[in-house]
Amino acid sequence: NLIDTSIALNLAFFVNAAILILAAAAFFKNGYHQVAEIQDAHQLLQHIFGSLAPALFAIALIAAGQSSTVTGTLAGQIIMEGHINLRIQPWLRRLITRLLAIVPAFFTILYSGERALGSLLIFSQVVLSLQLGFAVIPLIHFTSDKEKMGVFANKLWVKITAWTMAVLIVGLNAKLVIEQIADWSGAFPQHQTLIKLTTIPLSAAIAMLLLYVFFKPILAHSENEHRKIPHGSALEIDTISPVILKKIGIAVDFSAHDRDTIRHALMQGGKQAEYYLMHVVETAAANYHGSAVNDLETQSDRENLQKYQR
Predict the structure, then answer these.
(1) Per-residue 3-state assignment (H helix, E strand, C coil) for 55-102
(2) Radius of gyration of the chain (CA)
(3) Which residues are paired to 275 by β-bridges?
(4) Long-range contact list for 92-101, CB < 8 A, 24+ apart?
(5) With 0-12 CB in 10 A as exposed, 13-18 as middle and 19+ as buried, what is 140?
(6) Which H/E stretch holds residue 11?
(7) What distance in Å separates the CA atoms of residue 193 and residue 179, rounded to the nearest whole number?
(8) What's phi and psi for 184, nearest 5 deg?
(9) pTM for this structure?
(10) Residue 229 pLDDT exceeds 60
(11) Kind and range of the H or E element at 132?
(12) Per the omega criterion (within 30 degrees of 0), is the bond before 104 cis?
């Protein structure tokens, strides 16, 4: 994994660097020194790199959008099912994620139009920058936890570097927010009170949420350590009701362990319970045909199950 990751990241760095260097050299050589909007990019490319360049540029943008969409969808699925343990139907999950991604973009483009494409692109990058703190801080907490990561937990120098970068990111974002609120207040003096009444409480709420994300793992870790030392409190036990098992499944593999497995099951259920013998057929035919399989191994396993029933 280390080798694969290192090679992939280094190759991506050199590819991106080559693209930037080539584009900068081409634009500078042809005298395009002014910063243009993204909607004008195809016109600039056509005059410099030929008639095929605008089409390739459009295909690259579509491919990049598809790549980021697929990555975000898979990451959201893993987070919902693996970390949050929120299991919903796949079609409903896809519908929700697609609507959350498409509907805001649709209404934004519908309201702003093509004239604001450049500013909207810059605004989206600003929003992504503001979200970095909420992604980096939990990541550092998770990768620094020795109970979860084991020998792969962050070393001390990695922690220092990571927290330094996190503080730098959060500090720059806070500076950006403060300057932006001041710019809005100066640009719209007639709405200065309304701007402050909406942006300042919202910024304060986001800051409190960021502080919660930072301190929650630390406090939870200290609470867990406090609970473990030395032991928990004794519970009050009045009466203990017997556990009555009505249906018991018994997994068998037709080995010497089956005798102990069936004996323990009979001890738990007695004569009142219903017992179900279960065995998994692992042949290639079973994997393909499912319950309709009837090969030699399946027939032999069925006969063995019938012997246990007698």
Answers:
(1) HHHHHHHHHHHHHHHHHHHHHHHHHHHHHCCCCCCHHHHHHHHHHHHH
(2) 31
(3) 248
(4) 97/72, 97/73, 101/69, 101/72
(5) buried
(6) helix 2-29
(7) 16
(8) -65, -40
(9) 0.55
(10) no
(11) helix 117-144
(12) no
Is 274 in contact with 246 (CB distance < 8 Å)?
yes
Question: Tokens 């004008």 sit at which residue?
Answer: 40
CB–CB of 140/160 below 8 Å? no
**Strand pairing category for 274-278 and 247-251:** parallel
Q: How far is CA 90 from CA 74, 80, 267, in A?
A: 12, 11, 42
End-to-end CA distance of the chain: 53
How far is residue 109's CA from residue 66's CA, in Å, rounded to a whole number? 18
The structure tokens listed for 193 are 């009170």
pLDDT tens digits for range 175-204: 988 888 888 888 888 888 888 899 889 889
Distance set, CA 156 to CA 159, 168, 199 (Å):
5, 18, 38
Q: How far is CA 113 from CA 37, 42, 117, 274, in A?
A: 14, 18, 7, 68
Cα–Cα distance measured from residue 65 to residue 112, given in angstroms and rounded to the nearest whole number:
20
17-72 pLDDT per residue, tens:
888 888 788 777 777 766 567 777 777 777 777 888 888 888 988 888 888 777 77
CA distance 17 to 24: 10
Of 105, 141, 280, whose CA–CA distance to 213 is shortest?
A: 141
CA diameter of the chain: 92
Inter-residue long-range contacts of 50-56, CB under 8 Å, 24+ positions, other chains counted: none
Distance CA 41, CA 177 (A): 30
Across residues 119-146, what is the average pLDDT? 84
**Average pLDDT rounded to a whole number, residues 12-17:** 86
Closest listed residue to residue 309, CA positions, set 280, 270, 278, 281: 278
Phi-psi region of 50 (alpha: psi -120 to 50; beta: other; left: phi over 0): left
